[in-house]
Amino acid sequence: MEAATTGSSGTAAAEEVEKAMNVLVAIDDSDESFHALQWVLDKILKRSPATEAAAPESSRPVVTIVHVVEQLARYAFHGGHVVDYGRKEQEQNAARILSRAFEICRDKLSLNAKTLILEGDPKDKICRAVEEMGINLLVVGSRGLGQIKRAFLGSVSDYCAHHAKCPVLVVKPPPPSPAKKAH
């Protein structure tokens, strides 16, 4: 194990504290993923002195909101043309989702927020982005799938919790309001 050395610039631990927290929030069009974004902004990042407006830009948390679009099947038609069915709608939907999430971040805190669209399998792409971007915390929402659905469909949050190279925060959906329970 390597020992941390102390020099004139301070300890390694102090230098680590000065770095901006790098958070990735995986988001889709579900209420659960927007709840996870809201939760991390309210419960974790809001409490950080680095999110105050007076904090230097370099120490403010960086929140990357990522949306993964699954690759669409390619269809070949007579004449050899290949068409990506639904590509335009998929891009518009991704832009709408990320715009909504970005506005939530902008309205909440003084932090650096950015958006990213990836294409492929959400489980793999999210874990790969965590590693490539040096993320300190991955935040995902939980849809509360039962064991059978999770076994057949798979769970992005479950996969990320086991494969991401950083701590993973799985935010459960809020309990149903009493009005919803009654109906």
From TrEMBL:
Record-linked InterPro entries: Rossmann-like_a/b/a_fold, Universal_stress_UspA, UspA
Name this protein carries in UniProt: UspA domain-containing protein
Alphabetical list of CDD domains matching this protein: USP_At3g01520-like (cd23659)
UspA domain ranges (all copies): 22-172
